[in-house]
Fold these 2 entries.
Entry 1:
Amino acid sequence: MAPIRDVEGWRAPEVQRRVRDLYPALRRFAAAVGPTDIDPDDLVQEALVRTMRAHAPDEIADLGAYLRAAVVRLRSNEQRRLGRLRRAITRLGSSTDATSEVLGVDAIERASSADVDVLESLGERDRAAVYLSVVEGRSSEEVAAVIGGSAGAARTRVSRALRHLRAEMIAMEVSDGIVD
Amino acid sequence: MASSTDVRELFERRASRGGPPAHPDDVYEVALARAEEGGTQRERPRSSVLALAAAVIALVVLGALVVSRFGNDPAEPVVPAATPPVDAPRIATGRLTYDGATCRYSGERFLDRGARIDVAVRNRATVPMTAAATRLSTRPDPDELGTDVAEGDVAASLDVDAVRRGTMSFEIPASGEWVGLSCSGPDGVAVPGTVLMSLDGVVSTTGTSCTYDGVATFTPGQTLVVGLDTTPPLRGLLVTTLADGVTLDDVRAAEFGSRYWNYDLGSFLTSQVGVEAGPVTFAAPDTGQSVGLACLLDHTYHGFAVIDPAD
């Protein structure tokens, strides 16, 4: 594993303050966009670690966008790792409560009401794109900076994902008898 | 037809998952430490280490058995197996919070197997507390806690598997006495996040103000953080009044999401005040919106209130 690139740079108070100021929004982003079985604090922390190993702070023009992109990229690896942990804990015969606490299952259940599950029908990048656009009000260029690709592609992705999301929500309302 | 508002609400609800947000400084500190370490402890494949250790033990035991069976003086003690190589324990950054009735340690996720966390309850009362820790959500059994906890006594010990992530908690009776809570690793080094606080201290609201009355509950160097969380974000708000001549050292506005209300787009205002005693009061603006107020002491919420000015 690569060592940290610029330890002094990352220790600098102004850098820490930048991250501290960014942190609440980053955590919300991780919680809203990331997989539900991973603690959002873990996601952000892991993104920080990887960023510190890859770059000196002054190499990153937009730290917020970079860290958001790192959060999005982390998904698959973390999911696999925690999947292994969950299976191992089950084998060890831990209590349900303990397992739930370890994996944050209680949090998953809270967040897994049916309508929120609609968001799971989106892929990770689509979810991130919609969140950045609709919730954070980011421009297409800013969305593209996080999920990759061009601004036009990001705009298309957001539109397509929103159409899909709305169709899913309507279908759910119909099935629930909320609308005819 | 679902609107953008609906979509936004869905995301806000999804974002509400997870436990209390970790303090940014703690996350940064741990991330920095992990980055500096190169991640070797966390990422090192343990299976090969354990397999090697098991093989070493097996060889030593087998050798000892052979010697004792076929060899020399049967009374000669068997040479104990060499201690298997283990990683130095990593002490996690954890967090102790206290909500007025329960102490909760939210442990880190990066402890090594076999490390231990000791949770100590230190009672500064002259009379030993009785049943200071009455319930644990994880091991050990509450019977192990003992009943008379004197200062410095370790009230509960948890191994890593029990608290690898998640929480352990125990109730503390409202004794009105100082209670210190600490977590330490196997080398006795206290885990960052140790707190020392009194059971006293309440938050009261009057509809337009939030008052934390924590008289004589602060240890030197502690700061009181008064947070004001609004829905929707109200930028530029400032703490407007402080009672009892408390000096406002630092006021800054920053985004902050709360898990208790308005998981998104909250505005968080803090005043970190050096407080020795006395209430801290600030006025909540008439926003026409619900306003949540929380007082925090070293990351610990001391009460919550949601004020609706319409009331």
Entry 2:
Amino acid sequence: MTEKRTHLPQWREDFPIRWDDDHYVTRRELVKFLTLGSALLVGANGAIAVAAQNRSVRSYDTKLICSQSDLAPDESLLFRYPTEEDPCILVRTSTGEWVAFSQVCTHLSCAVVYRKEDGKLFCPCHKGVFACGPGKRGAEPLEGPPERPLPRIELELRHGKVYAKGVVA
Amino acid sequence: MSNPLRAQSMPVLTFLASLVGVGVVLQLWMLGTSLDGLLSQRDDTIMPALLASLLLFLLNLGLLGYTMRLDRHVRAYNSTSEIHDSQRGPDSQ
């Protein structure tokens, strides 16, 4: 043992650390740390799942948009809902259905317009196209750079008038 | 390394740490997919990602349990060898 030590450099004698033992402990602690991180990641994933479940219609005050007689089939009308800073578009489709969406494109926030030729919502800035139907999530992106749907405005038809009553986002 | 069993278990421990590390990276990928699904309102990817993440966590937990058992085994060997050394006395070294 003494003979072996004589071959060691001076600093090893001054600091006799067993590096192999140290590596063993480091790896063991790494497994513990990674498993803790794994638990946190499951928690974060669960939180996302809960957030997705709780995402539903955000209700706001009911607001009158127009009379049903104001719009013929295949026509659109711009309005603001729920606040004056939220531009929206109301469309009466060629089949007579009433749908409304946020007018703010989900790509770079340009204003989308209703295109009569194909009955779709069109963003002129980057040629994004959205479906204009009563989709579950909103107006689904069909072409161009947008990847997320336009939020849908919940409508209520009552006594010949069209009301906005919530936002599905 | 003073304990030969500890020296033998080092590669096993390294392999276990690597496996757990790969699991955590896959879980990060699942988290990214879930977040993407939440923000793009494509909820159909969220639950499978959560289930896969949970499975990976359980696998990691199992590997941690194995690591701790291995460590206990190594420690037990260490303490018994120390007892034998002390019974032999300083002259025997």
